[in-house]
Amino acid sequence: MIGVVEFATSTDTSKRGTDDDAAARTNGLVSSKDDVTKALQAVKESKMGSQTDLEVGLKKAEEMLNTTKTDNKQKYIIVFTDAIPNVASGVVPEVYSDEEKAQGYQGFKSAYDDKVFVPTKNELTSLANKGITVMSLLIDMKNEEIQISTENP
After folding, report:
1. DSSP character for 88?
2. What gap in Å lies between CA 103 and CA 24, rounded to an integer?
3. pLDDT in tens, 123-139
4. Which of 56, 50, 51 is nearest to 77 (CA)?
5. In the structure, what pLDDT confidence band is assigned to residue 15 with cuts at 50, 70 and 90?
6. CA dihedral 5, 6, 8, 12 (to 10 degrees)
7. CA distances from 143 to 18, 19, 51, 53, 84 (A)
8. Quick check: 40 and 90 in contact, CB under 8 A?
9. Cβ count near 93 (within 10 Å)
């Protein structure tokens, strides 16, 4: 049985870092090839935001696994990602000001720091402790430096 969860960020910037950063594209776990194909097409056509909220995506996937009877079979979450989570629950990177954008700054301030990585790692650890195996397939990797924040995440 397979379930499909899309995780990115909400296109509504006020909802970034919330449960709206991920969406189930199947109704629980399904066994129909047509259901999976439709779900993957929905992901392809989706208009979600450009940031990655892996933590919320993992939580939605776990919810999906837990709401479908699987007779104590091994559970897996397979993640297709660029491996760079830059949003987590309650942690939203600051947007550059118009003045900073005029100076050439793009994207988000401190989008790649441990304030985001720590909650994501904690969710991965929680899943492992529950016996859920997470596998990641990396896509579209870029060579961006990880920044260490001076704040306690």
Report:
1. B
2. 39
3. 999 999 999 999 988 77
4. 56
5. confident
6. -100
7. 27, 28, 16, 19, 10
8. no
9. 19
